[in-house]
Amino acid sequence: IHYLRLLLRRKVDYILCYKYKKRQSSKPRLSITSNGSIPIPILGRWETEAESGEAGAPAGEVEEPRLSEEEKALMREEFEAGLLEAGLQIERDKERATGLGFIRLHIPWPILSREAELQKIKVAVKKVSRLHTVVSDVIVLCMSAPLKGDLLCLDFLSFRFLHVNCLESSQSSFLVFNLCFTLISDVRQLLHEEWANYGVMHKYQPVDLIRKYFGEQIGLYFAWLGVYTQLLIPPSVLGIIVFLYGIFTVDANVPSEETCDDNLNITMCPLCDGVCDYWRLSTVCSLARASYLFDNGATVLFAIFMSLWAACFLEHWKRRQMCLKHAWDLTSLEDEEPEPESLDIEDHLYGYLINVSTLLFLIFVTFSAVFGVAVYRICMLSVWSMNPDPEAKASVRMTVTTTGIILNMLVVLVLEEVYGAIAVWLTELELPKTKEEFEERLIFKSFFLKSMNAFAPIFYVAFFKGRFAGRPGDYVYVFGDYRMEECAPPGCLIELCIQLSMIMLGKQLIQNNVFEVLIPYVQFHSYIKKRAAENNEENEEEKRPKQQFDKDFTLEPFEGVSPEYMEMIIQYGFVSLFVASFPLAPAFALLNNVIEIRLDAAKFVTEIRRPDAVRCKDIGTIWHIMMIFHVINALCLSSQAFVISFTSEFVPRMVFQYMYSVNGTMNGFTEHSLSYFNISNFPAGTAPTTTLFTGVSVCRYKDYRDPPWEPDAYTFSKQYWSVLAAKLAFVIFFQVCK
Q: What is the mean pLDDT of residues 441-449?
């Protein structure tokens, strides 16, 4: 009796779901179990697409979309007969009033053994107590999602058998299958308790259990995420130390103290034409002190450290990956050979043309969005400067900057979602041959579009803002009347820091909490309520406790690991490319990733259907991922060198201290970095119409130019060329240091 119970408790390897319209004239089909001995009438020969060489044909070529319910039922019966002929065992539930039917498939041990031999899967010579994974391929015909309303279509799919775990070869195969079912359930529960739980954030991930339950592809992703998060600890600690160093030494910083000194009585030129008034340099005191927190001498050492860290991170992951490949027996795994191309170049030409034209258009859209936000700041600066309130005028620069940064963040978040959908559409137009090729092209397009969208506003502030604004009396205008925006006297680094932190934190908080938690939660519970309402309409005799496969059907489908990689790649770009402007970026990334690991774990265990196991040698199976990391590392050093040289005030301060300072200190740097402008040289209509300042004959502006009393008035001074040469020399020196 015990042996018969073990025979009946078979492991469900795969679930097929189909929709139907309940037939009025026939009785509901009872739940039956077949091991291949029950004959089912066959109307035609069951053939797979693998045999006909058309595995990639779309669903629309398999059957016409307009089929009657009787034709669909006959096709299902024909398909089930093919499964039985292949040796699979079927368990079918009785049809329900909800219009959903489930077929449970069981793959016997002889079938798995045969497929394992065909796949040339290696097993240990000695008997060991650990579990071995057997993976095989089979081509089946299953019911896909509805097409055009409630119509169903048939699609030939290729899926991998779920992991079959065996203890010792001498045991009965049915006993092993029964044991495997229990172990699979225990692994899922164990993952939920020891991995998908915020209470165990201090523990290491059970990578081996993740790999056994989800497969090597997902196991490698979480292993990589764990290594990346672990290696973020040193730069996070060092970044916090750099920030604390700025806090403790800000009171001793001479340039910020000079900026805050009202006794210097430095009058600055207006920020806009006509409506803007002169202003005191001391009004940006808080901005100067905040800028020093991130723009100090320790930042340069931190930038050099981060450049070395980026290179060490990839090398450390390669070593860790080799250890996992050896432990998981992936060293001898061979890549699948692609199927021969069945389409001509003319078939791909249309998709390529659409891809190129669309990408060019999206590049234009991205830069137009950045330019649009810049125009918003320029216009709002003039509009809000008309406010007669002196306090409102004093804070107009900070108000415009803050609202512009928030607007930039919202534009980035919206465009990222749009670009993700467009990347999928463009990849489908290219008609890739395999799923791997589809993922490679998709992740390349996603990275190109999303990185351009995320980094374009930051690149603008770091390298373009204020570079082409001109000078008083000779400004550069947009739309004829609006001046190009300028950086504040303390420099653009503080604005770059705020821009980076807002986009980085906004993406992590909003995307993680809204798109990955809130929206799936609402969708799941709305679906549960809908199913509950449908179940209330069923007859009492059809009600029964929910089966596990019925519960899993309500979960979201697995969409691949490419979106997860893409989210971390963009974050890695923030951490490595612009960390010189925001040393706290690694700390925020570390905090996000500690939560992200458990968030993704809960999503994989409880919110999405269990994906088919996919074997791969490394994350380079989608080879664009490793290529992207190498490209980011190549740009990391140059980006940080240019940020320190051309965005921060580090190089001008060093040039002043060692070339122009009388006593070798920073005393007088603020006066040295500001140029003079005679207000009588304002073009007509550009001088302030009303002013609260009296006795002003000259105003100051941030630049290195000769004063109006020199023969070559308002031309670049010798100090300008000295500083420019020092900036270029620093870029070269920074490159050589690595």
A: 87
Question: Are the C-beta atoms of 242 and 298 separated by less than 8 Å?
Answer: yes
d(CA 181, CA 164): 9
Supply 69's token pair.
């319910």
Residues 532 and 701: their CA atoms lie apart, in Å, by 69
Distance CA 642, CA 646 (A): 6
Q: Residue 432 corresponds to which tokens in the numbers above?
A: 């890739």
In a domain, 672, yes or no: no
pLDDT at 231: 94
Contacts with 624 (C-beta within 8 Å, 6 or more apart), sequence order: 440, 443, 444, 447
- For residues 245 and 165, membership in a common domain is answered with no
> At 730, which amino acid appears?
F
Q: How far apart are CA 570 and CA 684, in angstroms?
A: 48
Which among 304, 313, 314 is positioned nearest to 583, based on CA atoms? 304
| 98 and 237 together in one domain | no
Dump pLDDT digits (tens) for 699-722: 999 999 999 988 888 999 999 999
User: Is 44's pLDDT higher than 80?
Assistant: no
DSSP 623: T
Q: How far is CA 39 from the centre of its chain?
A: 51
Claim to verify: residue 435 and residue 293 sit in the same structural domain: yes
The verdict on 204 and 172 lying in the same domain is no
Does residue 671 lie in a domain region?
A: no
Name beta bridge partners: 103: 16, 92
More confident of the two residues 205 and 481:
205
288, 718 contact by CB (below 8 A): no
Asked if residue 683 is part of any domain, the answer here is no
Q: Are residues 121 and 232 in the same domain?
A: no
- Check whether residue 88 and residue 209 sit in a common domain: no
Whether residue 737 is contained in a domain is answered as: no
By three-state DSSP, how is residue 411 classified?
A: helix
At 89 the three-state DSSP class reads strand
How would you classify the pairing of strands 89-92 and 482-483?
Answer: unpaired
Q: How far apart are CA 648 and CA 498, in angstroms?
A: 14
d(CA 110, CA 114): 6
Total domains in the fold of the chain: 2
Say whether both 263 and 352 belong to one domain: yes
Distant-in-sequence contacts of 169-175, Cβ < 8 A, 24+ apart: 169/127, 172/6, 173/108, 173/109, 173/110, 174/6, 174/7, 174/10, 174/109, 175/6
Structural element, H or E, at residue 328: none
Q: List, as one string, the DSSP characters of 196-264.
A: S-GGGTTSPP-HHHHHHHH-HHHHHHHHHHHHHHHHTHHHHHHHHHHHHHHHHHGGG-HHHHHHH-GGG
**Residue that terminates a domain, selected from 182, 210, 227:** 182
Last residue of a domain, one of 652, 672, 693: 652
Report the SS3 class of residue 516.
Answer: helix
Range of the domain at 246: 200-652
Same domain, 168 and 204: no
Alpha carbon distance 692, 228 (integer Å) = 56
Q: Higher model confidence: residue 514 or residue 543?
A: 514
Q: Which of 483, 464, 392, 466 is nearest to 682 (CA)?
A: 483
* Torsion angle (degrees, nearest 10) of CA 408, 412, 418, 421: 180
Residue 595, Cβ density class (10 Å: 0-12 exposed, 13-18 middle, ≥19 buried): middle
